[in-house]
Amino acid sequence: MNIKTFSIGGIHPDENKLTHEAVTQKAALPKQAIFPLSQHIGAPAKPVVQKGDKVKVGTLIAEAGGFVSAPIYSSVSGTVFKIDTAIDATGYRKPVIIINVEGDEWEESIDRSDKLETVEAHPELTPEEIINRVKEAGVTGMGGAGFPTFIKLTPPPTAKAECVIINAVECEPYITADFRLMMEKADEILVGLELLMIAAKVTTGYIGIEINKPAAIELLTKKCAEKFGGSKYNVEVVPLKQRYPQGGEKQLVDAVIQRQVPAPPAIPVNVGAIVQNVGTAFAVYEAVMKHKPLFERYTTVTGKNLQKPGNFLVRMGTPMQDLIDACGGMPEGDNKLLAGGPMMGKALTSTEVPICKGTNSVTIISGKEARRKEPQPCIRCAKCVLVCPMGLEPYLLAKLSEVKNWDRCEHEDIVNCIECGSCQFTCPAYRPLLDNIRQGKATVMGIIRSRTAKK
Amino acid sequence: MNFILIAVIVLGAIGLIAAVVLFVASKKFAVFEDPRIAQVSELLPGANCGGCGFPGCSGMADALVKGADAGSLDGLMCPVGGAETMGKVADLLGMAIANTEPMVAVVRCNGTCEHRAKIAEYAGLRTCAAMNACGAGETACGFGCLGCGDCEAACQFGAIHVNPETGIPEVDDEKCTSCGACVKACPRNIIELRKKGPKGRRVFVSCVNKDKGAVAMKVCAVSCIGCGKCEKECNFGAITVENNVAYIDFTKCRLCRKCVTVCPRHAIRDVNFPTPAPAPKPKEERKEEKA
Questions:
Q1: How far B203 CA lies from chain A's nearest CA (Å)?
Q2: CA A289/CA A119 separation, integer angstroms
Q3: Taking CB atoms and an 8 Å limit, are A85 and B215 in contact across chains?
Q4: A439, B215: Cβ pair inside 8 Å?
Q5: Which of A223, A289, B206, B232 could form a disulfide with B110 if both were Cys (CB 3.0 to 4.6 A apart)?
Q6: Is the pTM of this model over 0.90?
Q7: What is the pLDDT of residue A437?
C-alpha cells in the first residue's frame, strides 16, 4: 500500500510515546487557577469580573478583546482572588485572572451527561448557529497556535472551502493526548467533524492519522463507516507515513489532498481545505451540543525521567507543578521544562505556568538530553536544505539573519518558515539555525508590516 | 598617404563634434554641488556611524549646509566629533551653534550575578535579541540586562564591554561618542543617552523593572520597587515614579545625591563623585526641621 505523506523535506525523530497506553485520568482541581488573558492568537481578552466576584465552572470571566480574539471561561468555581500579572508561557509576566478554588459548582446551562448528542436530534443547528456557538464558547485551535476557530470556519469571500481535514497526526514525539482522545471520545469527535462540515458547508471530510497509531486508525475507520456510510457525507480516514512536521497545516493539506498552499498570506482555505485539530473537533462538539465552553483539555505530561508520565483531562488554569506532582514530581538533576513537545515546545523557567487552551503537553527533558551540543562550523552538507518542509535554505537564511541582511532574508522567503526546527534537529554541526532564522523572520515580518501600514 | 589624411580628418571631425556635444551637455545638465558640502565633509570625523541620524558623514554634511542656508543648525549634532567639530563647522558656515551638552550611554541595570540569582540556564543562540524572544532569560527579571553583549557588538568605537565578572556592560566615558547604536541594539531598552555631567558626575536610577514592588524585590537585590522615597526627597522635581519604576530627569537633576542615600534598594547610582554620597540625616533631626 502506498502510504501518503507530504512532498518535500521532513524528519523522523525518536517517537518516545511513553504514555501511549496510559488511560486519561482526571486531574485534581487546583487550589488556585490562573487564567492568562492572552491564550490565543489575536487581541488579549478583557476581564469582565472583579476581585471578590463569585464564579462557577463555565462562568465568563473575560470577553473577546477584538475580532481576532476569544472569550475565556472559568474552569473552576470559587472567588476571584485578584487580577494581576503572572508568568505565562511566553516567559514574561502578563495580565492574568487568579481564582481561588472553592468546591466544584457548575453553571446549570452545561449538559454534564455522557449521552451522545447527534446532529439529527438538533434540527436548529444551522451553519450560522454552529459558528456562533463556537465563537461564544471561546474555542481556539487546540494544537498549539491557538487561532480562534470561528474565523477559520468563515473563510474570506475569495476562497471556497471544499473539505474539512481533521488533524490527528500528532507527529511530535512524546505527545499522546490526541491519540488518547481519539480512543476515548471517537463518537464525539465524529459528531464534531459533522458540525464542522455543516458550518463550512462541505460534505467531504478527512481524518489524517499517522500509521504509528494503528488502533486509532482502525477505530475511526470503523466508526466512520457506521456513522457516515450511506449518508451525504464522504468521510475518509487517511493513514499517513510517520514524518515530522506532518501536523503543520500546510504539510497536512499536501499529504492528504496533494495541494500546495501558496506563500503567506495564503491560508489552507485558499486551496479549499479547512484544517482543524482533533482536539478542536471535540471542543466544537462540547461547545455546540453540550453548551460547554472551552475550559478543559487533554494534556500529556511526559518525560523519560518522570516516575509516572500520563495523560490528563485537565482544567485550564491548573499550574504545571500540580500535574508534575501527580506524575511523581520533578526528576532530580537538570531538567528542561517545555510547554508542548520537544520539537515545537517552548522552554519555561517556572513550573507555576498554567495549562492554557493550547497546551497539548508538558514535556520534561532531563539530564544530558536537556543540553545543546557545542555548535561547530557549517560544513555545507545541505542536510538542512533536504529536510526543510517549506523548500527553504536554512543555512543561508540563518547566515543572512546573523549578518542582519534583512532585504536578502525577505528575498529568500524567510517568512515562509514554519519554525518546525527540522533544520536544527538534523544539523550535524549542531548549529543554532532556527534561533537565527526566527530572529530574522520576526524582524522581516515587522518590516513588512510597517511597510504595508505606511501605504 | 591619402588614407592617413582621410583618417585624420574624419577622426578630427568626430572629435570636434563630440567636444561640442559634451560642452553643450556640461553646460545644460550641470549639477551644482555646493563646494561647502565637500569642505564640511572634510571636517567631520568620517566614521559614517550614523549617530547623527543621517546616512553617513556626507549625508550629515549635506544636511548641515542645507541647515545653514535655512538659517539654523538646530538639531544637527555630530555625536562623535562633539562640540569641537561642530564649532569648526559652524565657523565655516558662518553660523552660531547651540552649545549642546555632551551625552554618554548609561546602562540602567545593576543586576550583577551577586544581586540577581540565576534560576535557569539558557542554551540557545547567545544574543540578547534571541534570548529576549524566548522569555525572561536566565534570571527571573523580565526587564534587566541579559548580558549577551548585543550592545558591545553594535558599538563601533569599542566603548562598551560586558564585564565577565558582573555580566553587565560597562561604558568607557572617554570612548563613548553617544551615537546611540547600543541604545537601538538593546532589546530591553536598558541603555539610555544621558547628560555626561560635570567631570562625568551623574546620578541615575539603575533599574528599569516595571514589576510591582513585591515582585521586583524578589527577583533582584538592587531593583527599584517604585516606593517613591526618592521622589519625595528630591527638591528639584527631577524624579518621577511611573509604572513602578523611578526615573531621574537629567535636565532637572542638580546632583545633590539625596535620592542616592534614601533609596532603600541602592538602585540609584552616583558615578565619578570623589566622595561617597552624604549620609542621610537621622530621623529626629528631620522632624525638628519640619517643626
A1: 29
A2: 9
A3: yes
A4: no
A5: B206
A6: no
A7: 94
